[in-house]
Structure formats: structure tokens, C-alpha cells
Amino acid sequence: MTSESKPYSGDNADGAPLPAGGPNPPRAPEPETTAAPAASAAPAGESLARDAWRRLSQNRAAMASLALLIAIILVCIAGPWFLPWGLAEVDWNAFGTGPTLENAHFLGTDANGRDLLTRVLYGGRVSLSVALVASFVSLVIGVLYGAISGYLGGRVDNLMMRFVDIMYSLPFMFLVILLMVVFGRNIFLIYAAIGAVEWLDMARIVRGQTLALKRREFIEAAHALGVRDTKIVTRHLIPNAIGPVIIYVTLTVPKVILLESFLSFLGLGVQEPLTSWGVLISEGVDMMESAPWMLLVPSFFLAATLFCLNFLGDGLRDALDPRTR
What are the record keywords, sorted (predicted)? Predict the structure, then answer.
């Protein structure tokens, strides 16, 4: 027995009429969705230098030290132009007088009647120039020497590091006295003597960074692409080791200033009519009881510069260290 098929009546099971177009009518096209606003896009990348500066600017001690250091440098460079007294000019009416507005001796005079503020600013020029030049010399020699030694490795590395050990064994004072006996006293020899010794620590630091970097993937990729060794050292290894190098340079500058001051204190530094902070401190020690300002003024400038450089070095260490991010 077969059942008769009923024609489709267009009603639901409960008898309600279906909408026009059958049980599944075509839907109206939905409006196209607009693209997401630019604000929701992924943030743009930040360079290493910009990230380091942003982190450094959040360190109040480092920024205050940087501002004070720039102020000291500008005052030492431009200050003598606005003072009425020259470096070796003598005021015959003021010998060893204290700070006074009379005759524009704002910080007093020394035992020879020369304006102390003028001599301190000229001495700052010498001390800061010695520090910057010697630090630059040690930076160039130490970075290149350490990068080449660490990259080549093997016997070349051992030979180069043994030479560094030999240089470490030579007393610094012996090297300075030897240079001055052979070439005579000259401020450029101070640059050479200090720079010829301070590059040893820089070379060891860069060598250690190079040994850690030369097995990284980007160095292996450069080898696979056939990049020359000189370009690998100068374009890949040295730029990636620049963080610790910058930090150490900020610590080398105050060390060089102290070495120059020590040499000048012993009479092996700059000679008249030039002066430096070390020479002024040496002169101030002899007049400490009768004229204490002769010791306090150059000591203040030297101590302020050293503190600024140390605080700035600590700030750069925190800003460039990826482990603190």
C-alpha cells in the first residue's frame, strides 16, 4: 500500500504561512566592514639608540649629571673670553687675596697675583682635552685590537693577549718617565702615555664580547654569504659590542683626568704657562693653611666632573643593558 504524496502547501508544520521565497529565502547583502583604525595596528619598532635614550632620560641622576657636565665644559671653553684677566696676567695689587668683587677676582688670586677663576677655567680645558683625547686613543686602539684578537682566535689570540700581559707588567710611571726622557716634556706625550696604557682594559673587554658574538647566527650567515672578515669585524662585531664600550669610556675619562692630575701633581705634567686642575691642586696644597681657596676651587671642579661622569656611566649601563628591560 502506497501513500499519496501531498503537494507542498507553503505552510509550516503549525499551519503558519512561510515567508515569500520558500523556507530559506535569500538574505540581503551585509554591508562591508571597514578596515580597523590605524590606532589598533601593531606599534612601530624602536631603534636601539632611541630606546637607550628614552631609558636614560628616565634616570634623574644621570640626566642631572649630563646637564652639569655640559655646563662645566661650556664654562671652561667660553668662560675665559668674558673674564678681564688672562692666564698669566698678574695683578700687582693682589697677591694671594681671597674671593672679592674688587678688580673682578671672583674666586681670589694665587700666590703670584694671577686670577684663580681664569686659571681654573684654562686648567679645565687642558684636563678635559687630555681626558677626551687619551680616551679616544684608547678607544680606537683597544676596540680594534680586542675585536681582531677575539675574532681570529687560536694562536693569534694567544700571542696578542700575551703582549697585553707584558704591557700590564710595565709600571705606568716608568713608561711615562721613559717617554719624557726620550722625547722631552710635552703635553702631547701625556696624551700618548695615558692612551698607550688605558687601551689594555678596553682590548680585554672587546675581546670577551667578540668571543661571545662570533658564534651567533648572524655571524654564521655572514660567513655563508661570503662577507669578508674585515667587514664582519667592522660592520657586525664592533657595533654589537658598542654598549659595554660606551659604558667603559665614561669610566675611562675620569680615570684619565685623575692620572693627568697625578702626573701634574708630581711635576711631570703640563708646564708653565699652561696649567691644569692637577697643577692647581698641587699649588693649593702648599698654600692650604694661608689660602684654602686655592685648593678648594680646583678640587670642586675636579670632583664635580668625576661625579658627573660616574653617574652618567651608571645611567648608560642601565640604559644599554638588555637584561634590565
Answer: Cell inner membrane, Cell membrane, Membrane, Peptide transport, Protein transport, Transmembrane, Transmembrane helix, Transport
Cell of 120: 681654573
CATH topology of domain 52-90+103-324: MetI-like fold (1.10.3720)
C-alpha–C-alpha distance, residues 204 and 225, integer Å: 29
Residue 25: phi and psi, rounded to 5, are -75, 155
Q: Are 293 and 238 in contact (CB under 8 A)?
A: no
The average pLDDT across 202-206 equals 90
Between the CA of residue 173 and those of 12, 246, 300, what are the distances in Å? 108, 27, 26
CB atoms within 10 A of CB 203: 25
Helix or strand holding residue 309 (H, E): helix 293-320
Average pLDDT over residues 88-102: 80
User: Where are the domains positioned within the chain?
Assistant: 52-90+103-324
Of the candidates 43, 61, 63, which has an alpha carbon nearest to the alpha carbon of residue 53?
63
Cβ atoms 267, 185 nearer than 8 A: no
Query: How does residue 1 score in pLDDT terms, banded at 50, 70 and 90?
Result: very low
Which pLDDT does position 40 carry in this prediction? Answer: 46
Alpha-carbon gap, residue 113 to 91, rounded angstroms: 5
* Average of per-residue pLDDT values in the chain: 79
Residue 115 main-chain phi, psi, to 5 deg: -65, 125
Contacts of 88 (CB under 8 A, 6+ apart): 114, 272, 273
Please say if the pLDDT value at position 173 is more than 70. yes
The three cell numbers of residue 12 are 509550516
Q: How many residues are present in the chain?
A: 325
- Within 10 Å of residue 280's Cβ, how many Cβ atoms? 28
User: Which three cell numbers, joined as nine digits, stand for 54?
Assistant: 628614552
As a whole number of angstroms, the distance between CA 15 and CA 13 comes to: 5
Tell me which of 8-12, 207-211, 259-263, 299-303 is least confident: 8-12
Share of residues in the chain with pLDDT > 70 (%): 82
The residue to which cell 505552510 is assigned:
11
Helix H or strand E segment including 250: helix 242-265
Residue 251, C-alpha cell as written in the block: 669610566
